[in-house]
Amino acid sequence: MFVFLLVMLGCLPSVLAQSGALADGFYRIVSRKNNFPVLVQHHRLGYVSEHSGSSGQNDELSQYWKVKQVNGTYRIVNVGEQLAVQPLDRLNETFTVGTNAAHYYIKGASGAGSAGYWVISTAEDFGGKTLWHNGGSGLVQNWEGVSTEANHWKFVPLTTDELKSVAKFNAAWPQLEQGFETLDRLRTGGLYRVKNAAQHYWTVDATAHTLKTTAQVSSSDLSTVWVVERNGDGFALRNASTGCFASSAEAGRSVSTGVGNNRLWLNFLQTTNGFFNVSGNADFTDGSCFTESADKNVVGGNARSFRTKADTVRKVTDTTFFANPAAEWQFEPVTDVSEADVKESVRRNSTGVYTPVEGKYYLVRNVAYPERVLTTRPASDNVVRGEVRNEREMGQLWQLEKVGDKWALRSVVNQKYVGNSAARTQSYTMTDTQATFTLQEMDKWLPYLAFVVRNGASLHCASSAGYNVVNWDETSTASFWQLEEVVLDAAALNAYKQRLNEQAELTAHRDQLNTQLQRYFADNACTQLRAPYASMSLDALKAALRAEQLPESLIDVAVRVRTDTWNGANAEANRYEKYFRIQPYQAYSHPQKWARDMKLMPTSFGQYSQLTNPTGITIPEKELALVFVGEEAPAGCALNAELVQGKNTTGDKLIALHKGLNVVYANDASHLYINYVMNDTVLKYTQQPQISIHVEGGRANGYFDATKMQNQDWDNLENLKPYGFFTDDVIRLKSKHTIHSLSLRGVEEQQRNGNWNYNGQYKGITGVLSKWDWVHEIEQDFFKPEQFADRFNCLMFSTDASGLYAFPYGTFIGTVSTTFSYSEWVKGSGGDNGGNLWAVVHETGHHYQKLFNLSRCLESSNNLWSNIAVWKRGASVSRLDAPQKLFNRFNRHQTWFDMDLGDRTRMYWQLWLYYVELGHKPTFFRDLFAKFREQPIDSREAKSDYLRFARFCSEAAGEDLTEFFTFYGFFDKVGNNLPLKYNDGFYDKVYAPTTISVSQADIDDCKAAMAQFSKKAKNLMFIDERIRKTPATYEGHQPGETRWATIGGLNPGDSRVFGDVGHYTDFGTGTEPGTTAQPEAVRLEGRSLRVQGKGAVGYKVYNAQGQLVMVANRHAFTIPAELDLSQITVTVAGGDGGEVEIFKNGKIVDAYNQPLKFDNPAGLTVSTGTDHPMGKYVIRNYRMFGGKYYYADAQTRPTEGRSGAGEYIFVGGKNSGDYHIYSLATQRWATYSNVRDGRNMLSWTDDFAASQPWNIEHVQNGTTSYYNISPAGARAHAWNWHGGVGVTQNSMGFYSPDDANSHWELIPADALTEYLALVKHADSVLVRDAAKAVSTHSYHQAFRAHLATESQRTTATQADIDLLKSQLAAWDVWRTADSTLQADAASVQHIQPFLNDFKAKLAALTLASSTQGLEEAQELIKAWHTWKKADEVLVRDAQKVKHSRPFYNAFTALVTSTQTANAAQPDHVAALNQRLLTWPVWRGADSLVQIPPYNDPLNTKFREPFSKLIEKDYTKEAQIDSLKDYGRYFRMLLSADSLLSLTNPGYPLRKFQAAAGLEEYYLQPAADVEAPDWSMKPYIDLLIDAWAGPANVRSITKDADAYYMPEDGKIYRLRGYLDNRYVTSEPAWSAHDGRTAEVSMTRRGDNATLWVLQKDANGNEYLASLTGKGYLSRMQNIGKGGLSNQPAALTFGTARHIQYGSDKQQKVGTLYIRNGGLTLVGWTNDDAVGGHGGSDAAPVWHDGGKTGSTSFYFDTVKEATFTVTTHAGSNGNFASLQLPFAVELPKGLTAYLVTAVTDKDGNANGDKELTLQAIGDSIVPANTPVVLSSAEAKTFQLRPTQWRAPLNTLLSGTNLRLAAADRNSTGLVYYGLTRDADTQEFLFRRIKEHVNIPGNRAFYTLPAASGSVRSLTFRFGASPSAVKAVKTDEKAAPLYDLSGRRINAAEAKGVVISGGKKIILR
């Protein structure tokens, strides 16, 4: 019998130890209930099944467990995770693994059939709900019952082979075990010091209350001692000195300490042995671990560090992780400090009271929630709560009364006591009589007390009960309380009681007060006084009301109504406050009844928003509000008030409202809502009265209702913030379908960022809210909402109070963000996954999805609406995976059970796209919903879940959808309780598992029901809107714009992603049929079919039984190996539902067995397939390596020499330029999977359809010709032996196509390929040259006909190749000649005979004669260019010839005599070249001699002999040299004559020329000669100095008396004396000292080198940059040239400062420029303008090395302007301007001054209005900021003019850029002219603090205290439009200003001159 038992039990001997206990070892733990082994997923214990997917190695290890006895209990440790099963503190929870190893008890199971099974419990008696339990949920949880089958587990020992896989675990086990034991010990508690390997100990920074480390410890320093205690599955670490706990760590921030008992976890799995990571996060995420920083603080950091190393060969970066020593800590037991020491220290630092004293006042603070204290709310109810401490809440103050050895808690407000009678988990309430508690100390360190009624019953602050105080165990931390003594504020207590009494009085006497009020008010809402009270004086009215003994609060109401004063500070504020305080309120549908009735508008949560009617009134905490109601709620309706705190979804409770006076008390600051609801769903809201309600008290904050308000209301309320509106943190928004409680700042941010402006229009808050409504209308449309017209108007709530998810009343949206951006709603951005539009629609869809939400489609069915919204938005396409994923699932025979979220979403989407969007059945989903109203989904069985869905879809469509749902795998799975998952790692973790049962009978019934429809819906599985690009339809789209990708990388129209066919528009519409399949050509390549044709939407493969077994939507697809080609039929599916057979019984249908057609831009010889390969090539790298060429072998590896090269053929792809590459030797196709730079990126496949195409580009550049080979669509990567030929290569790699090693030669491998390639090339050349073949047209046509014949050859020899090459070379010569002649024909004149002769020669050519006479032809082409050049010269210079006419005529005769016979003859060409060489000398001399004299003709009398010489026809060199010499001499004389004509600043006055005898004694004698007399040159060179001699006599004391000086209003270029560079207003870095000068030297002649001289009334002179960049000056504190915003007076000096015999001299014709004690210096070796200090007496300087000079030429510029542009706005065309020089305005441009500023709308603190007044004339003075206006927006040219004094204006301005940093210190706020993006109106708007103001701008400023002004509009001041009947004195003298300029009498004012006298005009 014993042997028999051993045989029966099998494994018992190895499982049982001698004592009968479970032996230590490695096991699988298998559930008796379903025989599944337990494993770990996401740290949770579950069990594996056949439906869990494939098991990898890690999955296997997670099924292995080490069981180890420890002191009579067991540790159970998972091998894969190396973590132990942890204890559970709560019931019905899932067991988890971690470092907190539980001690389990294991014993044999009991009950029938339990032999060999065990029960596992955390309790030694195995009692209660402590056992491991398999409840069928897929998870292991805790429950009760040792004999229950679901609690029985078999421990199956691992086999010998399985034990081999735990070797790694065994190696780690010693450290694991030590870690578990250490944590066990720490959980028992004790005193420890925490240190790291550097012996640095935790301590507390007493000031900052943060952790730091120290190397010093002592028994007297308790700050380094920590009390370690267990806290759940973690620990609490309390400092022994302060009693505070270590908090969680945040990345980079110091760890703080606080009173909260924070939970920390310790982990040893990645640390040095004996050390732990410490974190407030159980997963020890990055940033959460306690680490020591360099400054010895303990901060949040990472448990692991890493180092990176760049691999230059692989071009990747390798990352190595290792333990972070700074995050490792060791717990050192403390032996030098006692617990008594710690207790004394902790208590000394505690604020708590250890022993209460009667008569004192206390807060009772909860330990688990230290921010909460014991609270009663006398104004609301008697419930005892734990509320956040509030100084104003007197219900939080208590006194304790001693009753024997117990205590009672009494409120100071109403003297009531905390009751001690409540059922378990129920709330305690206040009572009028004493109720006592035992005060039990709960902590040996701190004064934590429990108020105990009896064992297991105490005051407990329950978070699960809204923090009400309930009856629960005293051992729970939330049952611990600390008493804190407080000082009572008697005045505050009395005020608190007074409010309570007022509430009580008003409530108690409500009926009486209503009766009294009706004597005075005409309505119950108290909005209108009766006569005569409405006309009474206030005093009389008050007297009458007081006589009634009405409370003052009600008297105040009457006064406000009488005076209509609600917010007296501002009329607009008064209007809005009344609007919010007195409103009619609408009734709303019942939020639960409509949501829970399947026949109505059911939602998944059974709840619409309870909040419907915000009042706009915020009631402060502990305050009353009076609510006057006009009438009672009608029958079937209820009317309540609701107080809502912050962003809460509801109020605490509903407060019934009745006609007349109602009193509402707010314990917390709350917004008042009116809850007016129809309890009867039959009622119509349009038939219910709108009840008038008047609210007094609280504060009018306002809200926004898009159904009643406009955008202007929002803007008005924003502007009324100073009057109390929109000041709450939360704004309430409402629209037709939605109601929101959102962060006001978040909403305002969207407006401020311009996100309410779109496409040039301001959409505002109403635009955004309309889009929220649009979402609900999309989703509600499925319910056919018009059937509930006037009955249903429920709202859906949203708030940003929490993360993004749906909840019973609406949706949390995380943050406002772009959910309130109009552009996000109407456009979004590419690759944004639908953005926040998707998110909002998805979460809202959770509410509406109930009727069609199949099992495990919770996150899919609602995505239909998200996709619809994204699609209807019109900017992008659906957010779905590419269809190939689903095709692959079907082709692998996967079922509905295998589909993931996206697959299931796609099913819904395809139905909508076909039936609704295309119009085949627009009411499809409406009809579907109607069916599900009658028979809702029941997900327990398939027949009432997805099979019902399939059947109802067919019924709704009126079509048989069997094929569609077959594709989705609805009919392929049978079984009971089949696990159904989301097949998503996240959602399968979040949501509990489920099962569903499917029977074959149910499947058959479903199919039969669908088969009754005669119309079969075919091919729908192919429909997709992304196959091709689709036109965009979003608001504001541009013509031709297409939709972008919603998912990044999935670009519409990319056939590599989406396939080739199946575009949704090919499926027709409700009125137009879809496309008909029209195949044209089919080819079978191995098992791959390639199809060409029209009308296809997909391809289908059927087996011999006619079952659909495969689908594809690519033109090339592979038939799986398991399908016998001879047994299948392949069809082309059309958009009309039809199919055409193209392959049957193993062969292509004859009609389609045609060759395929390809585009071949690379010009390769392309094969049609591998069966008849043509065009064999070898592939060689274009570059030589070490003098050798390398070829690609058959694997594309580099091989030296031709012998090892592989041969390849190229098969055309479906797109132009795409090819498939086939290796003939390996018989495989080249392909790729990853497209990135790297080695060995090319791979191989046997399957053509699986091979990716390659883009081959033929690059030709001159003689360069090579190919780039790249993955199709990824030309940034090209074939490249990455790393070079010296590195081992397995296949081709990828790198940049620009790399020299990425270029390839495709060399024909046989003569035929070479010849055919040459034929293609030759034909492409002739095609290219067709338009150029004019004279050679006949020859060209014959050549092309010959090539067409040659392209059909199947054999070729080398002789054929050579002949064709020679013919092609000949064509190139004759084509060049033809092209050249055609290009030049129109421009020739003198060589027309040559042209005609040459063209005739070309016209006579034939293909046979083309290879003859090529050398002669090339010589003629060369000669043609020479003769053409001569012809061009003659034509160009014909009009310039005067004295050189003989030479010109001889030149012309030579050119005209040329024909083909002599054009290339050497002597004829030599004669031409001689003429070409010498003609420029004659032409130049002729031009020079025609320059007229500047002064006296005698100065250039040499012109006469010079002219005679030019008239000779010389060609000899000596004659040419003579002419050149005459020319140089004449140019010297001409330059001297020109010099004496100069009047530029710096040159002597003309009168000094005669005094110096310059012409008489120097210039004229030199000119009066017959041949050049070079002895006169020294005298000519001295002209300038001789001219200056008389000017520099001492008797002349002023520069202006001797020299020309700069003139006011003139424009100059300042040219440096030494190198002729110009001074520019552009900055430059100085090579001399490394600083940057604001002005520099340049050779550019742009506007930056132009300077306007301005001379003011005081004679000060300035040089202003014509670019407007201020004035030339010295830089502040730097000896360099600079620019000044303000006028900088300059002094100029002339050559009167010459010092003979010294280098320090000023040059004649130049001036020096001096400012601020510095003379500007122009350097030749530096771009920066420098400076010379010198002195006013000695200001000039020239260095000896000729590198620096103070001399500058002032080159006069006659004409230059400053450009300004006015821009169009809705109120006119404007610009602002300030310039450093006066300008004259052109016609059509007017300048305005600002003469006044007024408050806009009478609001002194609001926006302003500027008055613009036109200036008196067309001159804008320098430094006068103006606003420019024009009738037409355009660019104007402003001409600089003479100085005018600046005009007075209230505007300010700047010439230079005004940096933000400079203006922020001025104490002013700046406003700039700008155009409003919404209204397009020009106005002055506040300039942001960080913005720089550009130069030459006008702006307005206000003191910073006026910062509330946002903008300033402007208006034009009055100006006379006509003068009527004005009498004038005909003898009146004209008026002049003080400058002597005549002025208009009508505009004159101030001091003027009239009749020679000064008068004042006022």
Helices and strands in order:
Blueprint: H1 2-9, H2 12-15, E1 25-31, E2 38-41, E3 44-47, H3 57-61, E4 65-70, E5 73-78, E6 83-85, E7 97-98, E8 105-108, E9 118-121, E10 131-134, E11 140-143, E12 153-157, H4 160-164, H5 167-187, E13 190-195, E14 201-205, E15 210-214, E16 226-231, E17 234-239, E18 245-246, E19 257-258, E20 265-267, E21 277-279, E22 289-292, E23 298-301, E24 304-311, E25 316-323, E26 330-333, H6 339-349, E27 361-366, E28 372-376, E29 384-388, E30 398-403, E31 406-411, E32 417-418, E33 430-431, E34 436-441, E35 449-454, E36 457-462, E37 468-472, E38 481-486, H7 490-508, H8 510-520, H9 538-547, H10 552-563, H11 571-581, E39 582-585, E40 588-589, H12 593-596, E41 613-619, E42 623-629, E43 637-644, E44 654-656, E45 660-666, E46 670-678, E47 691-696, E48 699-700, E49 704-705, H13 711-719, E50 730-734, E51 738-743, H14 744-752, E52 757-758, E53 761-762, H15 764-780, E54 796-799, E55 804-807, E56 810-813, H16 822-826, H17 835-848, H18 863-873, H19 884-891, H20 901-917, H21 924-934, H22 946-957, H23 962-967, E57 975-980, ...
Parallel strand pairs: 40-46, 49-50, 51-54, 54-56, 99-107
Antiparallel strand pairs: 1-4, 1-12, 2-3, 4-5, 5-6, 6-7, 8-9, 10-11, 13-16, 13-26, 14-15, 16-17, 18-19, 20-21, 22-23, 24-25, 27-38, 28-29, 30-31, 31-34, 32-33, 34-35, 35-36, 36-37, 39-47, 41-46, 41-48, 42-45, 42-47, 43-44, 43-46, 50-51, 52-53, 55-56, 57-58, 59-60, 60-63, 61-62, 61-64, 64-65, ...
